[in-house]
Structures are given as C-alpha cells and as structure tokens.
C-alpha cells in the first residue's frame, strides 16, 4: 500500500470540503481497502465518512428512502424493505459474506469495482486500470465475464447484486457535490465501457451518494432475486435475475426484469417485460418471453453458456413467483 494522507469528516459539507483531486471516500472500506492493498488504486488522500449522518430507512410519498451509509445487513432485515421489496432484501442477503454485509454500506456497494482478475492484478494490462493498455480478458480467462454491453476495450461484469434489484425497480440515486444536489436514475448512472472503460459511472469528482429512493410499487411485494454462482457464499454471480410482477386475475399486468453477472452494468430487459405483460402467469408464458433476453450478446470463448443460462435463470425466478 502506498502512502496517503487521512482526514475524518462529520458532515456532508465537511466531506466535500476535504475531498479533492486524487482523493477517495472511506465508508465500510470493504472494497477500497482491498484495492489499496493490491495497489490497484492509490489515492493520495482518504476522507473517512463513517461519522457522516447519511443513515435512515423511511417510507415517504416518493417511495422508500435508504441512506447511503446504512449497512447492507441492516437494510436486508428492515421491515420496510424485506416485506414490500423482497427482491432488494434477497439480493443483499446473497451478497458477499455475513461479515462483509455487517460492514459494507449501501453507497459503497453500488460503487464497488469489478472483480475481473485482470483489473485486480497490477502486473497485467487492463484498460479500466490503465487506459489504452489492453483487455487480456477478451482472449484470456473469461468464464465469468460479460456478454452484454461489452466492447473490444472491456468485457468485465458489474459486481453488485443490489444494483440489479434496484435497476429492476427503477430506483434513483441522490447525489451531492460542490455544485449542489441532484438525482439520477440508477439505470443511467452506470456507463457502458465503449472505448473508455475507466469511466465507470456518472459520479462527478468529489461527489457523494447520499441515498437511494425506490419508487412506491405496492405490487413489488411479489418479487424475487435468483443468483446462480459456483458456491453458496462469498461468490459473485455467473448470472442473476431480479424479477417483480403485478398479477391480477391470473394475468401479468406489469413486470420488471433485470439481470446481473452477464452485463458490463446491471442489465434491464424491457423486451422480456413487454413479452410478459398481458399474458397468463404460467410457465409457457415465461419460456416464450425470455426468447429475446440475450439479444445482442457477444459470448466469449469460455462463457458461451451464458445466453442459455440467462434465459433459464429468468424462467426460474418467474416460476418461483408463480408458486
């Protein structure tokens, strides 16, 4: 780990004042500290925001608000989350390990960096780490890599389970920086890699995520998160599906579907949603609706199984919701 300076902030304003070029915010530290130890990132200045009052889980006219400094474990078990939005609680409970969930924050989870082995190894080239150096994953070990939203410059998957669930529910981020406050749809927050994979999101220099708002969707009680991985704990998704449906009279009136483990960002699937609307809630409907789930996919040598796995994972989630 390289030398750095440290400061602690007790308010958002103080945090913004102490941040600058080459600085990083420290919350739970479950991602940042690891990357600093590996020297994948080497901020010159670290601003500790653990004492900044960005907490709270409350329901309001716009929906459910979750403060950015809330711990993952606390959010997963909260009655305003687990009952009205089970897809969010399930995504959190299937993330990382119990120890990490007790430390990691909601804001930090949404900003975690890819788990691509090439990105996390400073001895190898990586366009996300060093723009223009290349992407060895394209022709290398790419079983866990993305098939949707990729480019010749990067094929790394987005790691957050929570972000998939929140994307399906059309959640919005509250952001605060030197220029004031703003809100942004989570689906618009993450960038496709294109030719600039080192620019991962729309966060401005020194800006903080202060909270997340999930729209009021009474029917989101019928939702679930299915995660396919190589082991049951502390493993990232090969494929996942966040699904919520509104069913009336046995017919799907509304559907939200997003996928993880297959895209360079959480991947919303509007074509699948449209194919479900107005159709009966049964297996034949599900199997027909997922036919176009992997449209536009670019499988690599070692992950050509992912388009079929994506379709099966979505069907599995829908069958679960059908009971």
Automatic annotation (TrEMBL):
One Pfam family cited in the UniProt record for this chain: CO_deh_flav_C
Gene Ontology MF terms in the entry: FAD binding; oxidoreductase activity
Listed PROSITE patterns: FAD_PCMH
Domain of life: Bacteria
Entries under Gene3D superfamilies matching the protein: 3.30.465.10, CO dehydrogenase flavoprotein, C-terminal domain, Uridine Diphospho-n-acetylenolpyruvylglucosamine Reductase, domain 2
Transmembrane segments: none
Keywords for the protein's UniProt record, in alphabetical order: Oxidoreductase
PANTHER family xref list: OXIDOREDUCTASE, XANTHINE DEHYDROGENASE SUBUNIT C-RELATED
The name this protein goes by in its record: Xanthine dehydrogenase family protein subunit M
Native source species: Nonomuraea phyllanthi
Lineage, top ranks: Bacteria, Bacillati, Actinomycetota, Actinomycetes, Streptosporangiales
């Amino acid at each position: 780990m390289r030398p750095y300076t440290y400061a602690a902030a007790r308010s958002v304003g103080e945090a913004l004042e102490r941040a600058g070029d080459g600085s990083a915010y420290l919350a739970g530290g479950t991602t940042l500290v690891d990357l600093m130890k590996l020297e994948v990132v080497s901020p010159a200045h670290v601003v500790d925001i653990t004492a900044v009052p960005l907490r709270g889980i409350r329901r309001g006219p716009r929906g459910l608000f979750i403060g950015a400094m809330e711990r993952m474990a606390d959010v997963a078990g909260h009655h305003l989350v687990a009952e009205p939005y089970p897809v969010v609680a399930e995504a959190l409970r299937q993330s990382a390990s119990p120890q990490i969930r007790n430390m990691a924050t909601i804001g930090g989870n949404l900003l975690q960096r890819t788990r691509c082995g090439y990105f996390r190894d400073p001895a190898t080239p990586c366009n996300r780490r060093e723009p223009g150096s290349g992407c060895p994953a394209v022709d290398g070990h790419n079983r866990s890599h993305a098939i949707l939203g990729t480019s010749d410059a990067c094929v790394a998957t987005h790691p957050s389970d929570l972000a998939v669930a929140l994307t399906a529910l059309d959640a919005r981020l509250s952001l605060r920086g030197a220029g004031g406050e703003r809100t942004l749809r989570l689906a618009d927050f993450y960038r496709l890699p294109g030719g600039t994979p080192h620019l991962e999101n729309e966060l401005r220099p020194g800006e903080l995520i202060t909270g997340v708002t999930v729209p009021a969707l009474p029917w989101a009680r019928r939702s679930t998160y299915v995660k396919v991985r190589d082991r049951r704990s502390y493993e990232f998704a090969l494929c996942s599906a966040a699904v919520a449906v509104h069913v009336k009279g046995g017919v799907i009136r509304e559907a939200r579907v997003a996928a993880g483990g297959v895209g360079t960002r959480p991947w919303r699937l509007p074509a699948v949603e449209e194919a479900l609307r107005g159709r009966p809630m049964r297996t034949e409907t599900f199997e027909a609706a997922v036919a176009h789930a992997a449209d536009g996919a670019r499988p690599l040598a070692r992950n050509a199984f992912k388009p079929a796995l994506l379709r099966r994972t979505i069907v599995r989630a829908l069958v679960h919701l059908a009971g």
